[in-house]
Amino acid sequence: MTEENKEYKGSCLCGGVQYTAVGPLDDVVACHCRQCQKTSGFHVAMTRLPLKNLRLDKYETLNWYRSSNEAERGFCTRCGGNVFWKPTGKDSVSITAGTLDQPTGLKLRDNIYTEFAGDYYEIPKVTR
What are the CENP-V/GFA domain coordinates in residue numbering (predicted)? Predict the structure, then answer.
């Protein structure tokens, strides 16, 4: 199986939202913005892929919240799991890395919006 057609499975905590992402996936970016902190309680680690490469296998509990003019966030209405981030007007979607079944083979590539990082943690080191 090549990277182009490798399948990654994932879900929220309760399994109400289940998906298959057809690779390759971008390496992970940790976002430290206040919106990510407010939706997760911490920074959010996400990977990205073209929207056409995401298949929703189970989505009865999936709901979308427009968190800003720039994006909307997909979450599970049963367990509250933060699963997706979709930028407005783009053909891509980001998946919270923790919802992917392991192993993923992904690496942390970058930290963004670090100026908003909480004072209770250190910025994760990026290894390349």
Answer: 8-122
Rounded Cα gap, residues 75 and 12, in angstroms: 8
Residue 109 lies in a domain: yes
Domains contained in the chain, number: 1
Distance CA 119, CA 110 (A): 19
Give domain status of residue 19, yes or no.
yes
Report the side by side order of strands in the sheet with 82-87: 62-66, 71-76, 82-87, 92-96, 44-50, 28-31, 108-112
Whole domain around residue 69: which residue ranges? Answer: 3-116
Query: Is residue 42, in this structure, part of any structural domain at all?
Result: yes
Q: Can you count the helices (H) and strands (E) in the chain?
A: 1, 10
CATH number for 26: 2.170.150.70
pLDDT per residue as tens digits for the range 49-96: 999 999 999 999 999 999 999 999 999 999 999 999 999 999 999 999
**Closest to 85 in 3D by CA, of 99, 106, 64:** 64
Q: In terms of pTM, does the model score above 0.85?
A: yes
